[in-house]
């Protein structure tokens, strides 16, 4: 049986009624992507479910997406989320606090700043490539997601703290990210807000938060104790020294902590995930692998690719863009209605939660031909002409677009280029790959691969 909201035009916004009281709680928690696909297949671009008493509308039409994210953000604000991991950082904050923090944080990820950190990335990438060569020489396989996360752990640790990575922390942080990834994915946060006592991981989450907070606050304290230092390009120092535009005030320790966690966690998870899916796609499409190798050779002449080379590799960039279409890092985006408003011809009451799923948006049949086909050339400039601004939103859109999107794209392209330049990659898992939804869109059973040094 369906549930519905009536529109002024007489059209009904329909969706499954779900269980008494709980509504669609369990499908949302266990299989949100499958639910989104079923809803859009049956009900079209706008559909409705309920969790407890809260209406949740699924949107996938790029016209509605552009309106919500770009044209009218004040009408469709970020919902208030109680998130023990991200605190009140950029990804969850709202209103004046968000504007203040965005002003201070966004300049830290401009291209010239990312270039300053590129040497760190290249060094950590070279270490990882050598590690993977050595593992291959011993006949060992590994999980691509875990190794991609290990790479980004080293990169972000040094970028944030200017210390050599304390690898002993890696396993503990991976465990914490696993908890947080399941607990603070956009959907589970929403569900937890609506029905918090039904989350069995409550205590484990807060134990992990305490662990993470301890080592971050320790480093903030040490940095403040040194005072202002010229030439310090660590992300921690830039956050400590950033000034608000209106008041000239700096962030307090809690605000610095929240932004470190947001930026560290997002970069850690998003880049590792994009790299994992890109590597998998190349193992399934040898012609793509060869095209990337040819391009890298033409640009670097056999030298390891650097930050400056990324812009000279348009095909490899298109591969990553296509990966981010099929497996978008921000696989779902949450907003809510600030007042009663019409969306897609339907009047939605104030407080309706809006769920925009880039996974579904990037497969809209009116905007993407053969949407399930992996085709990097769909991002050729001439084929992008006329693309709707709401049709491709892997990092969100509008004023809240991800501040780290440039860093994510550059790092993923450089890593993919270096791996395929120096290594042969064999995928050892099942096809098709099963996935699960966390902060990002990850393989459910890992991504087992074996890499060997290329000959000749």
Automatic annotation (TrEMBL):
One Pfam family in the UniProt entry: p450
Entry-linked InterPro entries: Cyt_P450, Cyt_P450_CS, Cyt_P450_E_grp-I, Cyt_P450_sf, Cytochrome_P450_Monoox
The keyword Protease is annotated on this UniProt entry: no
Gene Ontology molecular function, alphabetical: heme binding; iron ion binding; monooxygenase activity; oxidoreductase activity, acting on paired donors, with incorporation or reduction of molecular oxygen
This protein's UniProt keywords: Heme, Iron, Metal-binding, Monooxygenase, Oxidoreductase
Residues bound to heme: 402
Co-factor requirement: heme
PROSITE patterns for this protein: CYTOCHROME_P450 (PS00086)
Family: Belongs to the cytochrome P450 family.
Name of the protein in question: Cytochrome P450 family protein
Organism: Myxococcus stipitatus (strain DSM 14675 / JCM 12634 / Mx s8)
Lineage of source species: Bacteria, Pseudomonadati, Myxococcota, Myxococcia, Myxococcales
